[in-house]
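Sharing a chain and its predicted structure for anyone who wants a worked example. Both blocks are below, sequence first, tokens second.
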Amino acid sequence: MDIIVCVINTETHMVQIASAMRPYIIVQDGTQTLYKGSRSSIGGQFVEDKFFENVEIQLAKGDMIYMFTDGYADQFGGQMGKKMKISRLKTILDDIHNREMDEQRRVIQENFDLWKGDNEQIDDVLMIGVRI
């Protein structure tokens, strides 16, 4: 199982994130950074040396955190029936990170629906965006 755990101190804006197999994106001062997360998953066979890095990031008011399942980027579609990929998601987020949250949700949904077209949705899709 893949998962992200995120703790935000709402007074200091210090963020702690631990990720199992899921990337996440932080936008600070308009600059986007993709964090890959730890390469271990939760569950499966017992392995004693699994490691989940706890990343601490000092954010400021207006910065964004995006956490998401693989369903968005793995969706098949477009003119060639290929996967959307994380690079397209990064481009979308780069274009919308400074917009109001309701507008971001609308654009993310519209882009997914347009990309998917008549193709069947292949996986769950969850995206969480948090503005500090």
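Comments welcome. Residues 3-131 form a domain with the Phosphatase 2c; domain 1 fold (CATH 3.60.40.10).
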